[in-house]
Amino acid sequence: MRNYEIAVVLHPDLEIDLAATLEKIENIITKNGGKINKKDNWGKRKLAYKINKQDWGIYVFYEVSIDGVKVNKINQTLRITEEVMRYLIVSLENIRYINKPQKKSTTKPKASKEVKETKEGDKE
After folding, report:
1. Element (H, E) at 25
2. Where does residue 48 fall: left (phi above 0), alpha (psi -120 to 50 degrees), or beta otherwise?
3. pLDDT at 105
4. What does DSSP say about strands 35-51 and 84-91: parallel, antiparallel, or unpaired?
5. Which CATH superfamily is domain 2-98 in?
6. Per-residue pLDDT tens for 47-57?
């Protein structure tokens, strides 16, 4: 099981009955073997550019644990879902690996030459 983030932009007219649409998306994820770890609903936001002649969209983010093979099935299903204007699936495993702090070296660094700083008023 790997961790993924699924970002979904929904049609703004769905704001009235958002619960049914979110349940539909969550069913797509869980029926394909995914486990939703976290859900973050940002609500209705202005889009950076028009999508399907819409200026606004509802942003919802999911953190999901799922087998990597089944991600393609979720991808195909979200592509044909009418309520979804845009979506993005990103692996969190690679991001956590990149941001992992480096271990500190146990060897002492070489001593650097000290540079004396002089003030404007000081003359040698």
Report:
1. helix 18-31
2. alpha
3. 57
4. unpaired
5. Ribosomal protein S6/Translation elongation factor EF1B (3.30.70.60)
6. 999 999 999 99
